[in-house]
Structure formats: structure tokens, C-alpha cells
TrEMBL record:
Pfam families: GFO_IDH_MocA, GFO_IDH_MocA_C3. GO terms for molecular function: nucleotide binding; oxidoreductase activity. This is Gfo/Idh/MocA family oxidoreductase. Transmembrane segments: none annotated. Coiled coil: none annotated. Residues 133-266 form the GFO/IDH/MocA-like oxidoreductase domain. Residues 7-121 form the Gfo/Idh/MocA-like oxidoreductase N-terminal domain. The keyword Oxidoreductase applies. It comes from the Bacteria. Keywords: NAD, Oxidoreductase.
């Protein structure tokens, strides 16, 4: 007998909700039943646009009897608050990254979920797409031998060049590490496992920035976090990585993830995307060699579906709250190291999730 689709409710109807709503509508095991936002007109507009039957406030979504899982697309500063409210309402929750902006809040959320037998899933689910998953399968098949090191880079001039309201990117709880770090660090912990310790250096080129795009162009706002960070990680099981997170670079370098192994170096597709080229450079080679990428390309919402399948089957889901907590602790340790100049130990530990099989598809129940 076929199981009923899992009812999903959205809290947050901003820009990113479009892509989630578009993709979830394609998955037969999911049905979106409600959209809520503090701006109820915005919620109503998104519900009408995507054929969702109910709209209203966040509380309306949490109280809806057909909502089994809440998708939390609010701003980072209230991620933990909204997710905890969903848990208290008896709902599983999928949250955009990061899981929280304070480690204690993330711990409280996971403890509350465990006490109620509920699940927490955390973006990014880009790591569940064809690109990164093909890379993980190649690594685990021994394509580059034993992974021993990694280099990642995310470098641009920053979101103040394109976002009409960019201030929140430059406040505590955001910045290039907390905003973009989850994509790169989640990929690294999928490859190497738990982070053991962190050291980092950070700076900002100036105390203010100026809005470039939209009706507020020309307005200045304060910069309250480092906008260029170099971070070094050591992993419990061995291996190390170096990462650049920068909103100070006129030379854009996005999506650089290179894994060095004992038998070659693998260039992984951009972890902020669901697909891309996968290449290997072998000893004595003259150039990179393309490797095949297989499986579902996907889009935002894959993590929700993986959770839904886990809820129904009892199997663990891959983009878990525990990984979200570990990545958050790592990012906060990077920030602490930039402030203190000290090497910071990481206390939390994770289990590396299984790679998604190449024949896994979200489009058939």
C-alpha cells in the first residue's frame, strides 16, 4: 500500500522560497500545504504563485494539522528560534544554513528534537546533488587513493554589489564564513569526517560598505565581521585543509574544492551548485582527466526529500542536524581563532553519511 505524501509547511517566503517550492512540487512523496511569513501578503503571493492551498503567519503553519515537516527559510539570526518552535509544535524541521548563530542554541534544538523523536535537517543540500555525490563515490572507490589534504576557495567582492539589502551579510552571524562556509565545510566533512581543530586569520578592508544595487544604492552601512578569512582545519581521522573565504577579491574564484590523495588530486564541482565537472590529476599526467558524473542533478529541496524518505523508512537522512551542528561549531571556531590568534579544538563529532547511489531519483516514489 502506497504511503501518503509528507505534508510540508514553509516559514519564510523570501527569495529562496521560489526554488524550494518549484523543486518540491516535482517530488511525489512531498506535498506543500502551507506558506507562512511575518509579511502575510508575501506569503499569500508565494502560495498563489506555486499553487499552495494555505497561507498566513508562521504560527498558522506551525498549527496546521497536515504539516508534518517545516521548511525554515527565515534569516540566520532567527533560524534556531523558528526551528525550536516547529519542534515544540511536534513537527520535523528542515532549516536553511546555518542551523543557528550560537552553538548553545543549536545544541538546545537538537536535544529538544531528540526528546520528541523528531528530525532536524540542515542545508546545504547541494552536497546531495550529482556533482558532490559523484565525487564522494569516486573518492570512496579509491580513485585518488587515501585523501590527505584539501584546498578550497570562495572569493568575490561580496553581496553588497548585488543585494538590495545587504547589511545582514556583514553582521555577526553572517559574513563569508557563516554565509558560504557551510557549502565548503559540509563537503569537507563528508570527505574527511569530523574536524579536530581550527586555526584562522581574518580582516576587513574598511569599517563600512555601500549598497550598490536597488533603490537604496549609495547608502553606507557598517561592517561588523571579517570579510576575508584564511582557515586551516585538521581532521580527527587524519588529513588537513586550507580554505579562503573572501568578499575582498576583484578576482572571482568560486567553487574551488581540490582534494589531494596519495594517488592523485580530485577537483570537485562547486559545492554551492548541484552539478559541474569532476576532474582528476594523476601522477605524471600532462593534464586533468574528466571523470563521469552520475545520478540526479537535483535542486534545493533534495535534503527535504531525503529527510522525508528517512522519516518513512527509519533510515538516517544525510544532511543532518548533527552535521549542521558540527559545521556551525567549526565556523564559530574559525571566527574565534581570527579574534584570538589561537588554535581552537572542536568538541562535536559526526558520522560520515553514506553516498547517494547513482540510481537514486527524487521523481519516483
Amino acid at each position: 500500500m502506497a504511503q501518503q505524501p509528507v505534508g510540508v509547511g514553509f516559514v519564510g517566503a523570501g527569495m529562496i522560497s521560489d526554488t524550494y517550492l518549484e523543486h518540491l512540487a516535482q517530488f511525489p512523496e512531498v506535498t506543500v500545504v502551507a506558506v507562512g511569513d511575518i509579511d502575510t501578503d508575501r506569503a499569500a503571493a508565494q502560495a498563489e504563485k506555486h499553487g499552495v492551498p494555505v497561507s498566513g503567519t508562521p504560527d498558522d503553519v506551525l498549527a496546521h494539522p497536515d504539516v508534518e515537516l517545516v521548511v525554515n527559510l527565515t534569516i540566520p539570526a532567527v533560524h534556531a528560534q523558528v526551528s525550536l518552535a516547529a519542534i515544540e509544535a511536534g513537527k520535523h524541521v528542515w532549516s536553511e544554513k546555518p542551523i543557528a548563530t550560537a552553538f548553545a542554541d543549536a545544541q538546545q534544538l537538537l536535544e529538544a528534537a531528540a526528546a520528541k523523536g523528531l528530525r532536524v535537517g540542515i542545508a546545504p543540500d547541494t552536497v546531495l546533488g550529482q556533482g558532490v555525490q559523484s565525487a564522494l563515490r569516486a573518492i570512496r572507490a579509491g580513485e585518488i587513493g587515501q585523501p590527505i589534504a584539501a584546498h578550497t576557495a570562495m572569493m568575490s567582492l561580496g553581496p553588497d554589489k548585488w543585494h538590495p539589502n545587504p547589511e545582514f551579510f556583514f553582521q555577526p552571524g553572517a559574513g563569508p564564513v557563516l554565509d558560504m562556509g557551510p557549502y565548503y565545510l559540509t563537503t569537507l566533512v563528508n570527505v574527511f569526517g569530523s574536524v579536530a581543530r581550527v586555526s584562522a586569520f581574518g580582516l576587513a578592508s574598511g569599517p563600512t560598505r555601500t549598497v550598490v544595487a536597488g533603490p537604496r544604492a549609495g547608502e553606507e552601512f557598517p561592517v561588523l565581521i571579517p570579510t576575508h578569512v584564511n582557515a586551516n582545519l585538521e581532521f580527527v581521522a587524519g588529513g588537513a585543509s586550507s580554505s579562503i573565504f573572501s568578499w575582498e577579491s576583484a578576482l572571482p574564484r568560486m567553487g574551488v574544492v581540490e582534494i589531494t590523495g596519495t594517488e592523485g588530486t580530485l577537483s570537485i564541482p562547486d559545492p554551492n551548485m548541484f552539478e559541474g565537472p569532476l576532474r582528476v590529476y594523476r601522477p605524471d599526467a600532462e593534464d586533468w582527466e574528466d571523470l563521469p558524473t552520475e545520478g540526479t542533478v537535483g535542486g534545493r529541496g533534495l535534503g527535504v526529500l531525503d529527510m522525508v524518505r528517512g522519516i518513512r523508512s527509519g533510515e538516517p537522512h544525510r544532511a543532518s542536524g548533527e552535521i549542521g551542528l558540527h559545521v556551525l561549531e567549526t565556523m564559530l571556531a574559525i571566527e574565534e581563532s581570527t579574534r584570538t590568534g589561537q588554535t581552537i579544538d572542536i568538541a562535536s563529532r559526526i558520522a560520515q553519511p553514506a553516498a547517494i547511489p547513482a540510481d537514486w531519483t527524487p521523481y519516483e516514489a
